[in-house]
Amino acid sequence: MNKNLLSINDLSREEIESILVTAAKDFLELPKRDIKKVPTLRGRTVIDLFYEKSTRTSTSFELAGKRLSADVINVKADSSAMGKGESLKDTVLTLNAYGPDIIVIRHPHVGAPAFIARYTDAHVINAGDGKGGHPTQCLLDIFSLKQEYGELDGLKVAMVGDILHSRVARSNIAGFRKMGMEVTLIAPPPLLPRGVESLGAEVAYSLDALAGVDVVYLLRMQKERHGDSGMIPSLREYIARYCVGRRHISGDQRVLHPGPINRGVEIEAELADSGENLILQQVEAGLAVRMAIMYRIIVDSAAASAEALEAGAAGEDRADADIKNIRAVG
Amino acid sequence: MKATIAKKGTKATMTIRDAHLFDPVQGLDTVTDVVLEKGMIARIGKSAGGGKDGRVLKADGRLLLPGFVDPHVHLRAPGREDEEDIASGTRAAASGGYVAVCAMPNTDPVADNAAVLQSLIEQAEAEAVVRVAFMGAISHGLDGERLSDMWDLADAGAVAFTDDGSPVDSGGLLRAAFRAAELVGLPLSLHCEDRTLSDRGHMNEGGVSAELGLAGIPCVAETAAVARDLDIAVFEGARVHVAHVSCAGSLGIIRAARDRGATITCEATPHHLLLSDEAVRGLDTGFKMNPPLRGEDDRRALVAALAGGTIDCIGTDHAPHAGQEKEVPFEEAPFGVIGLETAFAMLYTELVEDGDVPLETLVTAMSANPARAFGLPLPAIAEGEEANLCLVDTEQEFNIEPDRFRSKSRNTPFAGRRVKGQVRLTIAAGRVAFREENV
Predict the structure, then answer these.
(1) CATH, range A8-135+283-300
(2) CATH class of B14-63+384-435
(3) What is the pLDDT of residues B60-75, one digit of tens each?
């Protein structure tokens, strides 16, 4: 892995597979043990910096850090100095002074993780940046699919719903394609971005297109981002055409959803409660995958700097230069 | 007094020897000497000899051009003097070869009444090293609802009216402004944008915005407004300048309105001529401005329209912003980039050297055309004219280094570019406004 996980595009297919092996081998079974903690990141500090409301992602990262024995600090926007007019840059410079090993950031604006990476020596993990991306969600989804299907090459996935406002869609289209899957987007035109063809997915306007796929990936309707005038004629009309229920799902199709789910909007309650969906497996996978990411981001970079040391003075110079650069930027 | 400059320092008396005089309006394209006496061009011609008591400047064949005129700058005074003021903004202009700039009225307070405009003119008379022409606001406080004191502003010296930074949303108010402007014979400069279409966007809407997940500003937000605004202008027989054209679709609308008899000038910025929305991928806030960088097809269409004459002016839309305001995630950053100190070198290097736009077209679009559009003194290289010139070096390459800017701000999209066309000397209204060290 690179120093940071800012985008799913930072990872090659091989790196993704290797992280998922780590997750499955070392961490997936951990919650079933009596002692759910391993000493892997003992003495390390993880700061979870959340500028947006989040339940599952923040819980998952916090628990992942704690089960790795790291010291985990949660900083939430509503209780931080942000409300006192401090800029993101200054908040990160301040946190950096505590010498954290990892900063996990959730932020309402695209590119915020890359932005803060300029001001900290810590590894930065993107836990969702506006409508930009959500790479750890993508990894846990790939993990869940791998657990369920084994082989991913050629798997057909339909992503259904509010594509326009979805960072999950953006990361997952890229990630799924990287793993050899084919992606079809199903949404009404107002909920698809202009220029959607550049994302590399097929587009369909009707749930009829579910017929040919293996996996149905539902997205939450993000009404809060739709503005005052709205983007669709009405929620009632949307639900009539795009809410997915058991009748849309055939025998061996599996349903995923990144949560939080809106029962009766994008997913019918009966489907949400049925065995056809992998929603809770996704949550379980999230914990294991995030543990694997935090572990690997520390270990891989330690290995990389050890290699650099072995490579001699040149490597040290580079590391020194990196640190100086960070200070200069700060 | 329509365009103001500080009358401090002495008027230039010097001989510029072996300069490549290039003034398309005067039909001048020759290597010879120019003798300046007390700020006036006294003689043009070989072995004209030294001026009476002046010194000799060896130009060594470098280009001597009519000084540039920028129809669109934000000097940020009054209100944001931490970002720019009249002194720093005009020094930046001079170092870019400009001899005159048009300052926008979206200041704090807004230049929507004679008192604010008068105090700005007085400030320019004390501080400006190049001519500053001020535009007055169209609407009171840029509220888009009530006309500003347009006639008082005209009497106080405004050269045009604009709500730049904001469009005039109401067609009715725009029509009223055209009619009011007719009494005083001044043009309107229009920021054409339908804000219900650009709503909450941060960059051009297209493939790149889809990939990044940024809300888009579609081209139709500009073209729909250009179409409406020019329709009203044609109906009223008004004179209008279209600011910062960014979309191919606007060009046909402008041509069609001209065919219907309207008097229309329009500008494109260096950044819209040279950059596309691909530049936004890195989420560098130095590439965030409104209108946004468009697709490559739009960019090419703008270049062709400059070469073909549809776009007749270059305006930088010089928009200084404090460092801390741009050192934020892309969506939090304000719109705007600076351009006075990089315009000629960037355009010369990327468009003239590459053969896309003839030098004479670029020079005319940067000098005579904007001067005529807003009734400013025409910079001309001719005997008996006031000296408004710049000497540029089109041989020596240099790097654009924001740390060396005279502007108080650094928000350029061209940092680090290797270019030709460095300005060595600028004489504005007969006085040396800028001189590169060792010239």
Answers:
(1) 3.40.50.1370
(2) mainly beta
(3) 999 999 999 999 999 9
HEC readout, chain A: CCCCECCHHHCCHHHHHHHHHHHHHHHCCHHHCCCCCCCCCCCCEEEEEECCCCCHHHHHHHHHHHHCCCEEEEEEHHHCHHHHCCCHHHHHHHHHCCCCCEEEEEECCCCHHHHHHCCCCCEEEEEEECCCECHHHHHHHHHHHHHHHCCCCCCEEEEECCCCCCHHHHHHHHHHHHCCCEEEEECCHHHCCCCHHHHCCEEECCHHHHHHCCEEEECCCCHHHCCCCCCCCCHHHHHHHHCECHHHCCCCCEEECCCCCCECCCECHHHHCCCCECHHHHHHHHHHHHHHHHHHHHHHHHHHHHHHHHCCHHHHHHHHHHHHHHHHHC
Q: At what angle do helices A167-178 and A13-22 cross, to 10 degrees?
A: 100
Q: Which chain A residues are closer than 8 Å to B216 by Cβ?
A: 193-195
Neighbour order of strands in the sheet with A102-107: A71-76, A45-50, A102-107, A123-129
Contacts of A193 in chain B (CB under 8 A): 209-210, 216
**What are A180's two structure tokens?**
């050899």
Identity of the residue in B200, B206, B329 whose CB atom sits nearest the CB atom of A194: B206
Partner-chain contact A89 B327, CB within 8 Å: yes
Backbone torsion region of residue B324, taken as left when φ is above 0, otherwise alpha when ψ lies between -120 and 50, otherwise beta: alpha
Q: pTM of the entire structure?
A: 0.92
Q: Which amino acid is at B420?
A: K
CATH ID of A137-278, from 3.40.50.80, 3.30.200.20, 3.40.50.1370, 1.10.10.10: 3.40.50.1370
The residue ranges of every structural domain in chain A are 8-135+283-300, 137-278
For residue B109, say if its preceding peptide bond is cis, omega within 30 degrees of 0.
yes
Domain ranges of chain B: 14-63+384-435, 67-373
Q: What is the mean pLDDT of each run of 10 residues along chain A (330 residues)?
A: 95 97 95 94 97 91 97 84 81 96 97 97 97 97 96 97 96 98 97 92 97 96 80 93 96 93 95 92 96 96 79 51 40
Residue B203's nearest CA partner among B301, B332, B294, B316 is B294
Inter-chain contact A194–B327, Cβ cutoff 8 Å?
A: no
User: CATH number of the domain at B67-373, please?
Assistant: 3.20.20.140
Do B329 and A111 lie within an 8 Å CB cutoff?
yes
- CB < 8 Å from A in window 300-359 of B: 324, 327-332
**Inter-chain CB proximity B283 and A114 less than 8 Å:** yes
The whole-angstrom separation of Cα B123 and Cα B75 is: 12
What is the identity of the amino acid at B373?
Answer: A
